[in-house]
């Protein structure tokens, strides 16, 4: 690439699609009211999106219902624990096994945690 000439697209830029694919914009404003309610909630809560998760779920549901995005399970979108009416069904403090590290819990019983047998020796 030399200075003074426009870059050639094929040589310098590598285009990659978004992870979840592309989706159309809401040109007709089908989900505009839900979006405004979510943005108002963010403003009232100093951008603390945890307090606005139910509205976020409503907005994504609106987009999926109007074919503005591909339908997906809310667990995949990080909103699986938001129940009807916005009630959170589990929290990090009440269910620590629902988060990373749950598979690494120790399941040994006190009787099975005795000293290990060295390799090659029989008991």
From TrEMBL:
GO biological process, one term: mitochondrial respiratory chain complex IV assembly
Major subcellular location class: cytoplasm
Domain CHCH intervals: 31-64
Compositionally biased intervals (Low complexity): 87-117
Cell location: Cytoplasm
UniProt region (Disordered), positions on chain: 1-21, 78-123
Keyword Phosphoprotein: no
Superkingdom assignment: Eukaryota
Pfam families (UniProt xref): CHCH
UniProt-listed Gene3D superfamilies: 1.10.287.2900
Keyword field contains Cytoplasm: yes
Entry's Gene Ontology cellular component terms: mitochondrial intermembrane space
Keywords associated with the record: Cytoplasm, Disulfide bond
The protein's role, per its UniProt record: Required for the assembly of mitochondrial cytochrome c oxidase.
Family listed: Belongs to the COX19 family.
Name of protein: Cytochrome c oxidase assembly protein COX19
Species in which this protein is naturally found: Filobasidium floriforme
Organism taxonomic ancestry: Eukaryota, Fungi, Dikarya, Basidiomycota, Agaricomycotina
